[in-house]
Each structure stands twice: as C-alpha cells, then as structure tokens.
Amino acid sequence: MIKNLSMNIIIYTDGAALGNPGPGGYGVVMMFGQHRKELAQGYRLTTNNRMELLAVIVALESLKREDIPVTIFTDSQYVSKAITEKWLLGWAKKGFTKIKNPDLWMRFYPLYKKYKLNFQWVKGHAGIPENERCDVLATTAARSSVLLVDEGYENASKEQNTLLDESGE
Q: What is the CATH number of the domain that holds 9?
C-alpha cells in the first residue's frame, strides 16, 4: 500500500463514451497538497477505453515535476490491469502491435517510464467523491457542443474500412 499519500500527486481519472463508439470524453481531478486541478475534453467519435486511457495520459502530460510519486485512481480495469498485470511491458516488447489503441499506449509508455506511478483500481459509481466528479466531467465533456476529433480512433476506423473495401468483403 501507499506509505504517505500526502506526499504524492493524486490523480483520479474517468472516461466515457455515449454509444461506445460514440461521442466521448475524459475527466481528471488532480491534487497535491492544497492544489487541485480539473481537466476535461470531449471527442465526437471514440470509445470508452480510449477515453479512460487518454484521461491518464493528459493528466501525466500536464505535470510539471517528475520527482514526486504519482498515485492514479481509475475505475478502468482495462487501464489498471495493463499496468498492474504488466501487460504494458509485453506490448512494448512487441512494438505495440496487435493490440487495441496502440497510438495511445505508445503515447503513454514514455510517461510510464518517466514517473514513479502507482495505479489503484476503484469501483466506479461507489460514492468516491473525486471519482464521481471525474464521471461528471467526462460525461459532460462527451455531451459538449465543442468536440474534438479522436484522430487515432477515426483514422484507424477509416483504415479498417478501406482494407475491407479493397478486399471485397
């Protein structure tokens, strides 16, 4: 378990997709000492798992210091097990081939190596205030009228459709 949580940067993350795939968004709550920061963004077409992982990536990319341990609370087993069960290390050895969301895992991997990270899975919708806040941020972002393009998802979908069209299937 974590020895002194007050000396860690604490990050809660959540992702949402309305339709999966569909409009999606991520929500992040970051805390260190008396400081608190919230991040959220919506995308026009994406998946829940992509938003769960993107929330972690965006949070880590926004950090200004590398010398403070980071504890990430996520309700995504997809994200937490990739770290705690060491799937990520195997994927990296294989060049992130034949996995879902390789663009995001490749973006995450240098961050994983850069920071001292501790991942904690939490049950979603269990009344944990920061996790609930992340859910509100993510779903509100997904419903926003200002949605970005998740190029990794949309380009991969176009490539798959093109391959199917070319093969005659």
A: 3.30.420.10
Residue in 35, 125, 127, 165 annotated catalytic: 125
Specify whether 95 is catalytic: no
What pTM value is reported for the model? Answer: 0.91
Residues 153/45, Cβ–Cβ less than 8 Å? yes
CA-based end-to-end distance of the chain: 51
Chain segment 61-105, per-residue pLDDT in tens:
999 999 999 999 999 999 999 999 999 999 999 999 999 999 999
Q: Is 52 a catalytic residue?
A: yes
For residue 26, the cross-strand partners are 15, 41
**Angle made by CA atoms 31, 127, 37, in degrees to the nearest 5:** 20
Question: Using an 8 Å Cβ cutoff, are 51 and 138 in contact?
Answer: yes
Total domain count, the chain: 1
